[in-house]
Structures are given as structure tokens and as C-alpha cells.
Amino acid sequence: MARKLKPDWILFVAVLVLVVVGAILVFSSSAVLASEAYGNAYFFSFRHLVAVGLGLAAMFTLARVDYTLYRNPAVVFPFLSLVTVLLALTYFLPETANTHRWIRFAGFSFQPAELAKLAVVVFLAYFLERRADRINDARFTLLPVGVIVLVVCGFIAFQPDLGTPAALAGIVGLMLLVAGLHFRWIALAGVLAASALGYLVYMYPYRVQRVFAFIDPFSDPLGSGYQIIQSLTALGSGGVAGVGLMAGQQKLFYLPEPHTDFIFAVIGEEAGLIGTLTVLVLYGVFLWRGLRASNRAPDLFGSYLALGLTMMVAIQAFVNMSVVLGLLPTKGMPLPFLSYGGSSLMVMLAGVGILMNVSQRSG
Questions:
Q1: Distances (CA, A) of 73 to 93, 131, 306
Q2: What is the tens place of the pLDDT at every residue in 153-195?
Q3: Which of 56, 64, 170, 345 is 20 to 30 Å from the Cα of 336, by its Cα?
């Protein structure tokens, strides 16, 4: 008799709570802005709820699909190719806010860079399993991985978007490390990545200003240091228990992008230290269940896939919260499951669906 598969309810509940909290906080942080800009307090909330619905539908569907389906090269390479084409296509479409990040159609927009994370994770899980006995072979394993990751990250970096390639590089590095890559290759890749990062920062003056603002935000409080100062003010204003839902002041035209990049600061102001620690615990639960699924997966593909999907969420959450807390230079990156941003939310929830399928087969 086939073993009955049991869903990971702990993982599911942690994600669902984050999504519900996110839907509430998106309305709280965007209602006034939406009223001023669009004459409709529910403008952002409605779009967010549409993304939540589509994302949850994708999550429930993919949770029922055997993850070994993605091991097939007829799935892996067309998926990776499609993402690469979409990334290239953005350069031929009109700019949005001086960037080439979005594909817009019928009033909706999609950011291919978000889907690229999922595509690279699936590819690496497939490729590393097939090269399991030759992980440290430079020509046989590292060169193909390096070329593909470099192409994907290159397309994204020149949109321009520096945060996503950095996060993607972190995911790839951790997957390779767990697969058994020798530390000397990790060190070499780290040096090359740091050099590339420094060059890409130097290319754009506003990035240089962000680095200086990170070091001393009060040196330019109305310019490059404005975002982090307002973020820290919001966090400090919340105290232990917060000022209450909808009662925050920093989101009222002081805190930039309160419903997206800085929603964690809104949580800090309205729910206080209790709220921020609750969010941290929920991400901690997600990390625990994801790593558990990776450790107990019945095959290497499932193990690498679960690891990559877990890190896809964990690294992005770490970067976002670190920026809000002033621990990293300012970088626009949504907080998984909480921030407004349909592309990120739908891809993250789709990834959770795949992770849940691995988890229920992990025993």
C-alpha cells in the first residue's frame, strides 16, 4: 500500500499567517497614499488581494504536483530559456521609473526577475544532482553553472537591479556549498562577486550615495539618508506594543514606499517590538521547516530544491529587514509574503507550493 502523504501544516500555517498579516498591513500602510494618488483607498489593497488569490491558487496546485516532475530536462531548460527571453524582452519595452524591470499588459505588470529566482533554483537542483560525483570539476560542473548564473544575473543587474542578483548569488552559493563545493571555489567566487558588486555600485552615483548614507545617514538627512532615518524613526516610535493598527504616522508621506520596501518599519511602528519579533519567529519557523524538508528529502534533487526554495525566501527577508534596520545600504526589495508586489508574492507562494510537496514526501 502506498504511503499516505501528510502536508506540513506547520509550514502552511506560518506562511498563511504572514500572508494574512501582509494583506492587513498593505491596506494600513497604503490607504492614505492610494487616496491621494488614485482617489481610492483600496487601490493597492485590491491589487494585492488579486495577487494573493493567484499566488495561493498556484501554491495549492503545485503542492499537489509531484516535485520529481521538475527533474525532467524537458521542463528545466524550457523554463530557464523562457525566463531568459522575458528578461531580454524587458530591454525592448518602455522604461518604468528609468528601469527595464517590468512587462506590462492590460493594466497589470510582471517582473521577470522574480521568476528568474525560481528558474535558477530548479535548474541548479537538477544540475547538481546529475553532477553529484563531480561537483568540484571546473569544466564539467562549475563552468556551465557559472555561465548560466552570470547571464541571468547580468540581464537583471543592468535593468538596473542590484539587489536581486546579489540575493540570487547568495542562493546559488549556499546550494553549491551544501552540494560539496570546495571552499577554495567559494572563496574565489566571493572575490569575483565582491569585485563585480563594487564596480556596479561605482557605475551609478546614486548607489555610491546610498553606501555613504548607510555609513552616516545623518550626514544628508534630507537626501540620501532620508529613507533610513524615517525607517528608524518609525521603528523607534512603536516601542514595545506599537501605536496600534492604522495609527502609524511615518507612513503618512514621511516613510518612502511604506507598503513595499519599508513595510517592516510600519509593522514596527504599529505593532511594536512584539509585532516585529512575531514576524521574525514566523520566518524562523519557515526556515526550520524548509531546512527540515531539505534534510529529509528522499533524493538529492528534492533536497537541493527544498534548500533553494527556502533560501529564496529567507535571504530576501533577511536583506529587506536588514535594510529597514539600517544594517545594510538601502535597496528596494519586498518582504516575502508581506509587502505589496504581485510578482514577488505570486512567485514566492508558487515556490512554497513546491516546497510543501517536497516536505510531505520527506517523512
A1: 30, 14, 18
A2: 999 988 888 888 889 999 999 999 999 888 888 888 888 888 8
A3: 64
